[in-house]
Amino acid sequence: VNMEPEKYYHIYTHANGTESLFRGDENFRYFLLRYEHFIAPVADTLAWCLMPNHLHLLVRVKPMADLQQFFKLGTPPSDLTGLADLSGRTIRQFSHLFNAYTKAYNKVYTRRGSLFTRSFRRKEVTNHRYFTQLIFYIHTNPVHHGFTADHTAWPWSSFQGLLLPELTPIQQEVIEWFGGQQQFMEFHRQPPPPKFPFDD
After folding, report:
1. Which of 14, 69, 112, 115 is the most buried (most CB within 10 A)?
2. How confident is the model at residue 190 (pLDDT cuts 50, 70, 90)?
3. What is the DSSP string of 25-83?
4. Side by side, which strands form the sheet with 43-50?
């Protein structure tokens, strides 16, 4: 799946086998620092959740002009080959993130080899219902997998940040999608459906 400018994608990846991606709070914090470095220049993040053995993201790829500037490319691509190259470069930013984190993790824990499954999964978000349900799914995923009984208390997701008095423009965009913070909270109190169309 390509990652085209200004389109939305559900991204998720898992640890290899029974490995842990994050053994402690310092791992979560370090991953978020690396995420900001590699991903913020190429995509806006609307929702995210990190769990001990996997993660979920909802991102919107930056506009073409922003990508051109970041990758230090010339005039905007005018054909499919140029767009594919831009998509490939964006995808590689995620690969760089996972590789950089793996190298640091391996050094700390004296291990070798890949930490994440071979390639990260990505699906384009193509309709409003998918977008809305995906945000709910991402935030409630720690409950779904038994990591916590209360998703509102899980510290490694975007949920708590969306309830702050001061929001970034992207956070504000998500809250306004639900009609406000109260409506956002109400939506997240509903019971999850028996199965999401994108269950992992």
Report:
1. 115
2. confident
3. HHHHHHHHHHHHHHHTTTEEEEEEEE-SSEEEEEEEEPPHHHHHHHTT-SSPP-SHHHH
4. 43-50, 54-61, 8-14, 121-124
Q: Write the single-letter amino acid at 123.
A: K
| Three-state secondary structure string covering the chain | CCCCCCCEEEEEEEECCCCCCCCCHHHHHHHHHHHHHHHCCCEEEEEEEECCCEEEEEEEECCHHHHHHHCCCCCCCCCHHHHHHHHHHHHHHHHHHHHHHHHHHHHHHCCCCCCECCCCEEEECCCHHHHHHHHHHHHHHHHHCCCCCCHHHCCCECCHHHHCCCCCHHHHHHHHHHCCHHHHHHHCCCCCCCCCCCCC
Residue 195 in this model has a pLDDT that exceeds 70: no
pTM attached to this predicted model: 0.92
AA identity, residue 139: H
Q: For residue 174, give both structure tokens.
A: 């998500």
Question: Which structure tokens are listed for 2?
Answer: 């390509």
Residues with Cβ within 8 Å of residue 57, at least 6 apart in sequence: 10, 11, 12, 45, 47, 48, 138
Q: Find out whether 139 and 188 touch, Cβ atoms under 8 Å.
A: yes
Nearest to 42 by CA among 99, 93, 98, 96: 93
- How many Å apart are CA 153 and CA 69, to the nearest integer? 39
